[in-house]
Amino acid sequence: MKLKVDLLFLVGISISVKSAFAFSYRALPAGTVNLSSSVQRDVYTMADWAAGYGVQQAEGVLLTSYDGNDYFPMTQSYIPAGSPVMYVPSDLTFTSYKAMQEFGASLSICENQLVQAGLGDKVPLFRIFFKIIAEYERGEESPWYPWLNSLPRVYNTGASMTYACFDCLPPYAAYLALSERQNFVNFQKAIKSAPFSEDIVKNVTLLKWAYNVALTRSIEINGERMIAPMADMFNHSADTEVEISYDDNGDCYAYATVDIPAGSPLRISYGDPTDPTPLFAKYGFLDESSPGTFCKLMHMRSEIDALGYTFADLLFYRENGAISPEVYDVVLYHILLKEDDGMANGFYGAVMSGDENTKSQYHDQYWPYTKQELQKHVDGTLRDLERWSAKAQSYDLNTHPRVPLILQHNEFVKETFLRVKANLDMM
Ligand SMILES: *[C@@H]1O[C@H](CO)[C@@H](O)[C@H](O)[C@H]1NC(C)=O
Ligand SMILES: *[C@@H]1O[C@H](CO)[C@@H](O)[C@H](O)[C@H]1NC(C)=O
Ligand SMILES: *[C@@H]1O[C@H](CO)[C@@H](O)[C@H](O)[C@H]1NC(C)=O
């Protein structure tokens, strides 16, 4: 999309960011960002800094906060669909390909380790992580210092969770959160080969912060990871107002995807909103607007795979306790595999060929068994949820600050499961 930026935007003064990173082992310069959890984010200095470096915004767009911790952009003026909301010049952006140009061989050594650990697909994210650490190490000499100093210190992501947290979550959420943590552990190992100071590569607090920044603020475009300071402030929603794109020059644009009334938050999509758990594990928030949750049939994973379904197909709906049809298929296939191979094969064939008539004959014939199996699963999960939440409540909030989020997640699942139970019991 081509647009006349200057006609629509407030014009900022453009200064080019010259990055002069040269590798050497050295002591940390004074003035590295203070990562103490009690430090206030300095978001307004960052906004001035961004304007000084040529970031432009549509009239009426400003950063706002309900609680002084979380900030998000909103608009005080009407913005018509299709018009630009924000522009970030490429000089200011972090991208995985620019990190490779800047750090070359030193980065490759670390990346080989990631590849060996089976995390080749995380290489773009690692490059952003590396660049963030490099700029952190430069302290106030980094052109990005005001941006770094504006970022949250505390994260509720899976990578920040501990085994005590995983113990209080349903298996699917625990599994996703633990995978995030394992990715971080592998990043931590790989960065040891980088020519940063010992103070950096051994400091888990700092590395985890850099990982969380890279993970939660970058977006993926054509296999590359990018962060555009200021455009990284958009929050997630299932109903979005804004979309982000990059042009051939690497400049970042945010456009209005709908007519946006004055007073609206400006939000993008961080990922599939149908089930809140993957976003919970990755970003550390619960999207209460999600329509439902994965049905948590983790013990039927091989049946799910065999039928060609993904977890996102297998939903329980929160509003009315509805069950997606694929759930019944998986449960019935599980039952038939235990009882009768011939029947299992017949049912499998009907599902794979999309023969709805035959499928529903199987479903009718076995309905009492399917219902019983589902009730057993739902009742069992509800009991487990009580246990997990009771355990979370027994933790000290000072040492386990993520307990409220975990309880919120489990409550969302519980509400959904209770509605499904009410439906099942009446069927
Ligand atoms: C790690 O870095 C943080 C942030 O700079 C600092 O507050 C903390 O003291 C460091 N920890 C260690 C063990 O050096
Ligand atoms: C970091 O901030 C905390 C909380 O404001 C403060 O107590 C601590 O002294 C600061 N650390 C440094 C190295 O300035
Ligand atoms: C961002 O969105 C999430 C999910 O809807 C929500 O939990 C969180 O409070 C939002 N943050 C802000 C600052 O609005």
UniProtKB/TrEMBL annotation:
Q: Which domain of life is it from?
A: Eukaryota
Keyword GTP-binding part of the UniProt annotation: no
- Please list the residue ranges annotated as the SET domain: 159-271
Q: Which SUPFAM superfamilies match?
A: SET domain (SSF82199)
Q: Which UniProt keywords apply?
A: Signal
InterPro entries according to UniProt: SET_dom, SET_dom_sf, SETD3_SETD6_MTase
Instruction: Identify the Gene3D superfamilies for this entry.
Output: set domain protein methyltransferase, domain 1
Q: Give the signal peptide range.
A: 1-22
Q: Which Pfam families match?
A: SET
Name of this protein: SET domain-containing protein
Q: What is the lineage of its organism?
A: Eukaryota, Sar, Stramenopiles, Ochrophyta, Bacillariophyta
